[in-house]
Amino acid sequence: MSNKIKLITISACVIMFNACAQNPSSQNKTEKLNNMSNEKYEVNKTDEEWRKQLTSEQYEVLREKGTERPYTGKYYLNTEKGVYKCAACGNELFTSDMKFESHCGWPSFDKEIAGGKIKTVTDTSHGMIRTEIMCARCGSHLGHIFDDGPTETGMRYCVNSVSLSFEGDTIKIVKPRQE
Q: Which residues of 32-64 are buried (b: 16+ CB within 10 A; e: fewer)?
């Protein structure tokens, strides 16, 4: 294989892995945090309150707009039935019926729960133009949305597992009383 082909192949792999990923510089993180604090959300907390509530990884992703490594999130391969919520405020975002396997390394959903649960903004970081998805209740960064989904919606909500909590369906089996 020629060096030129190797270089093209490596470049393509890097671009694919970074399609959803974003790890802004400290300066960009501060700017984004400042912009987020100007927004009015139902749940408003100080930076100190968020740091106390969230793990360091959750804080980096949810509040500083970072990204977890692909194929490492605890919900990436989750197939249980239930509801996915914002890890910061508990806002119900997706159901398991909306989840599909996209092979991108992060949990993917084809739509959100109705009712304006997610806010979108244009993200021009890393030399790309993408649509960022944020929790409409608290402004936390969830991931990005793309129009390349395989379902009838054509959408792929690419979400960091660390941005989510999961509440599984519980089925209670009630046995009839023996008389």
A: beeebeeeebeeebeeeebeeebeeebbbbbbb
